[in-house]
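re: ur question from yesterday

yeah so i grabbed the chain u mentioned. its 246 aa long if i counted rite. heres the sequnce exactly as i have it in my notes:
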Amino acid sequence: MIVNATQDGWEIIYHRAHALLAAQLAGQWRRKDAPARLYETLAAISHHDDLEKEWEEDNLTEAGAPMDFTLMTESKAEAGIYKIANLAKNALYRGRWVALLISMHISRLNEPSRGKSSELDKLLDEQLQNQQRWRKELGIEKEEVDAAYAFMQWCDRLSLILCQQELPADERFLEISKGPDGERYDIKQRSDQLVIVKPWPFQEEKFTVNIEACALSQVKFESNAELTQALQEAPIKVLEWTFVKS
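ran it thru and got these structure tokens back, copy pasting raw so excuse formatting
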């Protein structure tokens, strides 16, 4: 989960909600420049974080605070290998294209950890083999798949910038990443709170996206069960961002 500190507690955004926000952003992309198999790509984007089940896991720091996903412990990382394997396998329920993009996402996130465990290495090898097989079966060139994944990664990064409150102050630009066209994109929030992206990649000249977040007023928790109950009972607030073509 994504954890942001507030004046009276915590703002919690579930990873599946972040993925849905990424899909909202993807749906706004300029149609003439859309990636291959757009709707299946949108499905991959909206489901790429389905392995996260915040109500069923240990999400407390040693100090008793909700644990942001960037603070993952070593034990959670080891357990995560089995979750990742299941995510890759279950993605096939939606088809090979969705599974291919999610497999590529697994590779990108976990290849830097190759060599740390034989189980992880085996999983990573399987992903590379699957990706090659699915590309061949689907009859699609690697370059086209890479462009679709770059699109997915771009939308994922933009969603995280919004969810993690990374928009710079004083109307300064922040790099998002390179898009599927290989071009760099930057984001800025104006003094009137409207958001712009340069160059403008979207179909409409103005649109709004949103996400739901849990507002926790309790700062510290004695157990994960207590945190889970608080999350399920917490008031929900809707966060919105309006993008405009400047």
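noticed a couple things. Residues 2-244 form one domain. also DSSP finds seven helices and seven strands in the chain.
anyway ttyl
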